[in-house]
Structure prediction request, 111 residues.
Amino acid sequence: MTSVVFDVINVITMELKVLGLRDPSDLGKHTNPPSPLVKDEIVRLVSGKYPLQDYTDTSNHSSHVYVLEKADGTQVSGILDGFSYDCTFAGQHLNLGVPQLSVIIQPAASA
Prediction:
């Protein structure tokens, strides 16, 4: 299983931008996410806790299921793995940067 990183670009419509997998050799870069997700595409969070509270919302303590929907209607689900501090302040403008979530997504099975 892999943890995909998303920018929360609109907290009202819950639109997320797929950044991809963190590159372990350069944490500022992201590699391609597992299929069917595509790097830089916009998906919508249709189910999942937001705003978040604290570390107890992560996969080590909880199993918050997140359902993401692509523009074509395809849905992908996973478990919240981590988030940036600004995800605890939904709708407030605190100039903390772009909120980010990471969701553990199981790669699509090969045919």
